Amino acid sequence: HSAAGNYVVIRKKKLKQDYVYAHLAARASVVKDQVVQPGQQIGTVGATGNARACHLHFELWLGKWYRGGHPVDPMPYLQTYQGY
User: Fold this and answer.
1) Burial of 36 per CB tally in 10 Å (0-12, 13-18, 19+)
2) Strand, coil or helix: what is 15?
3) CA distances, 4 to each of 11, 13, 52, 57, 66 (Å)
4) Which helix (H) or strand (E) element contains residue 7?
């Protein structure tokens, strides 16, 4: 996925969801199988890969990212989080 540049996929196994963060300035600060917490920094916004400007490309996939899952509009899911 070279178009994504530096990216990280965080899997929420219980909900069968994948969260994708792409075009990070550098490699993510988390490693495979690491448990992450809400609010934990996982990277820095950048312009790597096929990006023309600095931005965060965020995707929510139901199922596995590029392995049987499919992307969905993340807004309804994000609005359910406390503090929205």
Assistant:
1) middle
2) helix
3) 17, 23, 12, 8, 13
4) strand 6-12
Query: 52 falls in which pLDDT band (50, 70, 90)?
Result: very high
Considering the entire predicted model, what is its pTM?
Answer: 0.88
DSSP 8: E
pLDDT of residue 40: 94
- Kindly report, residue by residue over 57-70, the tens digit of the pLDDT: 999 999 999 889 99
Taking CA 9 as the corner, what is the angle to CA 51 and CA 16, rounded to the nearest 5 degrees?
Answer: 135
Cβ neighbours for 7, distance < 8 A, ≥ 6 positions apart:
1, 20, 21, 22, 23, 24, 28, 49, 57
Backbone region of residue 78 per phi and psi (left: phi > 0; alpha: psi in -120 to 50; beta: other values): alpha
